[in-house]
Design a protein that fits this description.
The complex is a heterodimer.
Chain A (H helix, E strand, L loop, with lengths): L1 E5 L7 H11 L3 E5 L7 H5 L2 E15 L9 H5 L5 E3 L4 E3 L9 H5 L5 E15 L5 E7 L7 H9 L6 E5 L6 H7 L4 E6 L3 H17 L3 E8 L5 H8 L4 E6 L2 H8 L9 H23 L1
Parallel strand pairs in A: 1-8, 1-9, 2-7, 2-8, 9-10, 10-11
Antiparallel strand pairs in A: 3-6, 4-5, 6-7
Chain B lengths: L1 E6 L17 E6 L5 E5 L9 H11 L2 E6 L4 H9 L3 E4 L6 H9 L18
Parallel strand pairs in B: 1-4, 4-5
Antiparallel strand pairs in B: 1-2, 2-3
Helix pairs in contact in B: 1-2
Classes of the chains: A alpha/beta, B alpha/beta.
Amino acid sequence: MKITILSGKGGTGKTTVSNNLAVLVKESFLIDCDVEEPNSHIFMAPEITEEEEIRTGYPVVDEDKCIHCRKCADFCHYNAIIAGAAATMPLKDLCHDCGGCQLVCPAGAISYEKKGIGTIFSGTSRFGSRFLYGQLYTGELSGVKIINRLNEKMSHSDLVLVDSPPGTSCSTVAALEGSDYAVIVTEPTPFGVSDMKMVVEMLKEMNIPFSVVVNKAGLGDNEVYEYCSEENLTITGEIPFERIVAEAYASGKLAVEISEEHKSLYRNLWLNIQKEAERSHES
Amino acid sequence: MNIAFCSTGCDLNSSVDERFGRTTNFLIYKTETGETTCIENRARTAKGGAGALAVQQLVDNNVSVIIAPEVGPQAMDALKKFNITAYNQQGASTVKEALDLWKEEKLSLIEEPGNKGLHKA
């Protein structure tokens, strides 16, 4: 079972929700797929036992063989090759490693070389559970390859909680791949609602059942509740905005570590999510 | 020789555009005849790699000199590779002014890429 925790925008509380649940749900396995900005490891403080560098290919042009037909540049959708009568120049940072330029080159002048784009870290969290996260190198464009590799590292028999990248980017779609259920974390503000709508559309398009968790409840307005009721979306939980939680978070501690009340809040949330996930798969 | 300007319009009285990769047009001036050609910049709406696509259009139009506000690191490398010299348009408000300053050799060369666009932090 793979449950992905996502949000319309950053800062709504994906990490809060996924990490607190990961601590409570003993048999779970947390994966931080927000490879551009991973931060679950700050709370999980894992002992890393394995590191894997993820690499991507980029084209190299053999100028002696190149006949300057410009087919490669015409083909490349990402403008990663500039071609003129005098030279053909690949720009490796723009390349998406599709291999198309190599295929269309009639002169066999293009070969692919590899470069690292990020690292995957695996280990055990300070709570004793399995934990994995990816980190995209600064300046790299796309974390999709790293997320795909993270997906390969989980098996369907695991109970996996995924901390997804925010929004509806390629990276988010990659993190959702193979999810049985999704949880949208939102906040009760106009921005929270507006950005959440796109996520709702994406999940419907991908046919992944989901429910909503309202974080920072008590702030903002009622728009999120009105929207959920209009759209018939289930709210599986509300997490109140509390200074004590924010202070703990800022020092790398989770809400479930503060008190029994906070623990039971997340325990209830988990029960609701489980119930909804089962219900959605029965219907 | 063809000189390209980053231009908001399609004639010499147009204002210079404050962007390179996402400039509205490239106005190309042929030094031999004084003719101009206006190229609508395809890179303007590119999702990524605007600088690269901008250079590709300069290459396609046999441009030897580009007058621009600044040039990103990827485009800078590409301009060098294709022997296109870049000059800074600063001080000029219209393409005509920039052209006159270039003729008087008063424009400075862009030798270092600007801090915008795709670059390794």
